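Board notes (copied after class):
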Amino acid sequence: MLRIHFGDADLGALRVAAAPNPFWEIATSLHRFQTRDGRWAYADWLRAVRAGLREKGLERAFRTVLLPLFPRAAYFPDFLTPAHGVDGLDAGLDAILATPPRRVTQEVLRLDRVVGAPRWAARLSTLEERRELVRVLRAYHDVAIAPYNEAIRARFDTERAAFGRGFLDGGVDGLLGGAGPAIRWRPPSLEVDVRPADRELHLDGRGLTLLPTYFCWRTPTGLADPALPPVLCHPVRRPAAALPPDHRFAAEPSVPLAALLGRTRAAALCAAATGATTGEIARAAGVSAASASRHATALRDAGLITTNRHATTVLHTLTPTGASVLRAAATRS
């Protein structure tokens, strides 16, 4: 168990990441190949990625470079999950190239002590070897992560919205109390079920960044070096669809959508675009709560929304299919 100790300043510096970090997605996606846990949830992805790696000639690099550097064990090097990744893949790759050689050497030595490192990993302290690693990381990302960016961002956005609702309803207690079954808020400490064994992390005024991660399964993880800016990578819990960055779904249903679903049900679907409770759907559609619940059930049964309980609140959000229906209707209105 990891115990994260908060002071007053840390509560004020608590953050939810603004965007997914592709390097944590890379790391946790590689862990999916190393365990049967959760394999059913990623079965289609695993098949597609294996085929993609064969097609791109990446199988050897996958086996000999990536899996040894990202073991699903007690440790993998922190420099492989740079914080700059939230600014995009290129920014994170540049951060890996800019990592001081001494830090790379120390982290590779720790990897070797904890789980064993391949001999060639010692050469990662040289810029030339890290350039080759960056090439492999980019190629793997193109196969295993980039094609799924919409789903990744969708679940991330829904999780982030749920955190926001938790904070608005209950402050820090509401935010941290809804962070997932492996995370327990017992003020002034956050208890997290992580590997390895018991650890203590004192934030000392630095705050904490929560990072919802698509390929993280059940067990949260974080940086091993307590001197680095604290981040807690944890599983997303809700399938939902991302809103396009250049378009906002209208609060009122379009004419084509209303003709397809009926105005009330179309209004309920629009309300779920940004996440809505049953009461919010009722107000948006101008119906009773009981009627809104029936419409939500119909939309859920049709695969257009998903419903999850967050603390005492039931939250309805779009599935990728629901988002596609809204986008298609919007382009024809």
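Comment from the instructor: The two ends are 53 Å apart (CA to CA). The longest strand covers residues 305-310.
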